[in-house]
Amino acid sequence: MSRTLRNISGRGRLTEDNVKDTLREVRMALLEADVALPVVREFINRVKEKAVGHEVNKSLTPGQEFVKIVRNELVAAMGEENQTLNLLRNRLRSY
């Protein structure tokens, strides 16, 4: 993925052409992590919608800006609040 992020460096605006390969890498990583295909498609579409035409912050490289967009969408998809796991509640009792 770092190789594909280098392909979008040096540009002031993210375009569909310069994020296409990186989106493909993100898609493959999600599928390899067993994320459901409809979820992957929706996620990629949201990232693409936010990234394409996005002005790059002067303090970031285009690759960093793209990673920021992906991270923000991952947080939005998974939820911003931490949830506690109550593993003891459903534990089988052994007598």
From TrEMBL:
Pfam families xref list: SRP54_N
Positions of the Signal recognition particle SRP54 helical bundle domain: 1-78
Single GO biological process annotation from the record: SRP-dependent cotranslational protein targeting to membrane
GO molecular function: GTP binding; GTPase activity
InterPro entries the UniProt entry points to: Signal_recog_particl_SRP54_hlx, SRP/SRP_N, SRP54, SRP54_N_sf
Localisation per UniProt entry: Cytoplasm
SMART domains linked: SRP54_N
Predominant subcellular localization, coarse grouping: cytoplasm
GO CC term, one of those recorded: signal recognition particle
Protein name: Signal recognition particle protein
Organism listed in the record: Escherichia coli
Originating gene: ffh_1
